[in-house]
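Why do we care about 3D structure at all? Because function follows from shape, and shape follows, mostly, from sequence. That is the central idea of this module. The next example makes it concrete: a single protein chain, its amino acid sequence, and then its structure expressed as tokens.
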Amino acid sequence: MLTADSISNAYGDRRILTSATLRARAGQVRVLFGRNGIGKSTLIKVAVGRLEPDNGFVRYKGRARLSPSLAELAREGLFYLADEQLFSSAFTVRWQLEFLRAAFDGRAVEDAAARTGVAHVLDQRPHQLSGGELRRAELAAVLVRRPDCLVADEPYRGISPADAEMLSSVFRELAQAGCAVVLSGHEVHTLLEVADHITWCTDGTTYELGAPAVALTHERFCREYLGPRGARLPSS
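And the structure:
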């Protein structure tokens, strides 16, 4: 569905990425791990058309894009949930979701709000919501939009376990419906639980580690990213 291939990028004299690749596949939840400052967000921004790489290219829905824009990719079904404010404080949540529904002939706002547990805050403005409510409202926007590809940077940051559980269930539902989902973050156990595939960004490049159970056998990933205690998948 989406590939940012052989991406290199530098900020001034500092090279962040040398040859990194990010892939999104329909029907899968893929997780991008990497330490802070290693280039995860840079790679994501290149993939969604918010940043032009020094080298490499983006392919979306089978067509290579040398200089894609987020607006172009969004018109073709991509939704980028950035690690920043999605909603404007000038309008209610309902107004903004209705605007999105009308623009993209999307899912009913009430249905999306009920699924994400924010029906009771629809007529409030975003600054009146708690962090968990705001993240749920952002996920309602995703459901209203009904994207073919969702790229979410740090969606679990700063939310409660209950909110995280709801997010994970919706991400899984989106993938089961055929959406290509890419997530990033540092919430290791939560992300391992929801993922079908793990990609590790380090030293300017990326490694495709495969399914979570396989990633946890990768010695260097466990040692350098997870730490000496490593991580374990929760027992089923």
